[in-house]
Amino acid sequence: MTARSEAASADSVPVPLERRLPRVRERIEGGSRLLLCLDFDGTLAPIVDEPDEAAPTEDNRAAVAALSDHPAIDTAIVSGRALADVRERIDGPSIYAGNHGLELARKGSVAVHPVARKRTRLIEAVCETLETALDTVPNARIENKGVTATVHVRSVPSAARPVVAERTRAVVDRLAGDDLEISTGKRILEIEPAVPWGKGNAVALIAADAPADAVPIYVGDDVTDESAFRTVLPEGIAVRVGDSAPSAASCRVEDPDDVTTFLQWLGTAGIDLLDPPDTSWIDEPAFPDDDRPHVS
Predict the structure, then answer these.
(1) In what side-by-side order are the strands of the sheet with 141-144?
(2) Where is this region: Disordered (predicted)?
């Protein structure tokens, strides 16, 4: 059994968020600020048949913008999409992680995992070969995301999906050997550099820049979000979007509309639970009475 499967077997069914709200309140109380990390597809944006058509709901777009403007909240988007792609789809956050954390934009610069950068040509070669290998499969779509690739099978007839998986595996094994690996998601096959890195690692890097008493929150819907759930727990809040499948998350909501409700709650009642900043120094004179500069 792999480490990932061992972790999965230990997971339980997350409790609906409304039943976990007292615990969520407890986690936020005493914190100085919130670090809010959000997946995109299936979380802010409904899952659609054509990935290029994905867009956040208007309510989620507005909620993210409002939270990003709040001085006590740091917001980040952590997505499997390419960095450039996801940045075009949602405005506001100061931090973006693309390609499951292999690309990270923060502090005015972009960092790319060094191994992933070296294997972009390998990803390109695999994508070009898959275009031919899957040409006869109806609606199979290959997306080259630079440092990773995705084979989309959502619109592929169910009987043909095992064929897509078999041919994809054969191409990756032949061209890349152990340098690339395949993982599965919601109606997708992800082709990635074989490095021990994922969304959880990206969230850990982002959290390292936050104050020690910041409260980390992660909201996501897919298998690739599980490492991020584990990163923010037990000190933070992990919310899974979707059905009642086992997960490392501590609570769940049903869909992107429920995500809106949670984000709006964070922006009102949630931030009111934070410790107010120390502003006592504002009322103190900048200089002792005898040392104040005088203007003549």
Answers:
(1) 141-144, 149-152, 188-193, 180-185
(2) 276-296
> Rounded CA gap, 262 and 253, in Å?
9
Q: Please, which residues bridge with residue 15 across strands?
A: 251
Q: Which of 104-108, 143-147, 276-280 has the lowest mean pLDDT?
A: 276-280
Place domain 116-193 in its CATH homologous superfamily.
Answer: Trehalose-6-phosphate phosphatase related protein; domain 2 (3.30.70.1020)
Q: 186-214 pLDDT, tens per residue?
A: 889 999 999 999 999 999 999 999 999 99
- CATH entry, 3-112+197-277, from 2.60.40.1940, 3.30.2130.10, 3.40.50.1000, 3.40.1260.10: 3.40.50.1000
278 is written with which tokens?
Answer: 């120390």
For 94-119, the pLDDT digits (tens) are: 999 999 999 999 989 999 999 999 99
Give yes or no: 272 in active site. no
pLDDT at 4 over 90: no
Catalytic residue, chosen from 39, 41, 74, 85, is 39
pTM metric for this prediction: 0.88
